[in-house]
């Protein structure tokens, strides 16, 4: 049986941490359907130029959010007859993560008004609410056993600053000693030579960055933070 | 810009455990391209009847392998201009897992000759080798912190039998005491009332089944088996 045509798009869930909360980038749609509504950045696959759906997602990130070089992973594919009024559609959704310092460094091309806390979203078109919920669950789950939260922490950072990021993502405090042991096991950080930050009454704390090899791929460990 | 048409299929990686090895179901393709070649079961999305890509995967599992009611999860989406000679394509790949007992009970409609050990695959068309490798990595990774391997163990089973399944999937032995503690934490098993199996010189061992609520979704724990 010859295949029936269907719509194939990519959607991008770009998350950052601001004001201690996970926030997602939403842009005003410039065309129907739902023109004028806030929605996830996304777009059609351009078969003439994209080499993969991941390519399409990187293109959308660059063209619609002006960002590149971020941590990106495929989230899940959402499909069906009812998610898009234009017809049966398949959307390959991607998760990207960026820290507030990188947003500044890349010129904060997306204005502050475009970010929304993931726990207080407006009504969204298509199944974007469900896609965002899936992304948040992925980030929270991976925070238990990987270096993912480090991508949300402006570098260079102290270990207490990184711990605060893990706690903001997880929505709960983490045992201080467990955290340091976990970071030791992950071994995903480089100390900045001579880099220290004064921290109030405490002696200056060592500064760290993510190791180069873990900037595009995650470091995972077997024992989670909650073990 | 109007979207260019592309091919959208689902592909199914159905894994079982036989002879202590993870094995994947491969079927002879009955049409071009690659007619006659062994490949993953798959098919086009039928927008007239499927409510989602998952629906399409379940339909393929039923129609091409004669199986239903198995544990199924979305694996990943593979895409690009070169994976299918018919043109730019997107394939939403699914992972399904079945134990040897269920295969027998459902009439083993797929003959033994169709299974291949995942570590000794023939040359495969499209990017099916890569899709299978992704599925095996997923199963091995999830075996460290979930109930997934229980779906590969004919029920009812003893704890030593279940431990042997985890070890066959992981490719290494697991500490006996750690395993029993992990099964306690997972709390995903029901003891069969009065059900025991004699085990050679040992006293008869208790028989178990997966709890009903974990037959379609996995039970996860924070601390992995290798911790």
From TrEMBL, chains A, B:
Residues 5-138 form the Nudix hydrolase domain. It comes from Roseateles subflavus. It comes from the Bacteria. InterPro entries: NUDIX_hydrolase-like_dom_sf (IPR015797), NUDIX_hydrolase_dom (IPR000086), WH-like_DNA-bd_sf (IPR036388), WH_DNA-bd_sf (IPR036390), WHD_NrtR (IPR054105). This is NUDIX domain-containing protein.
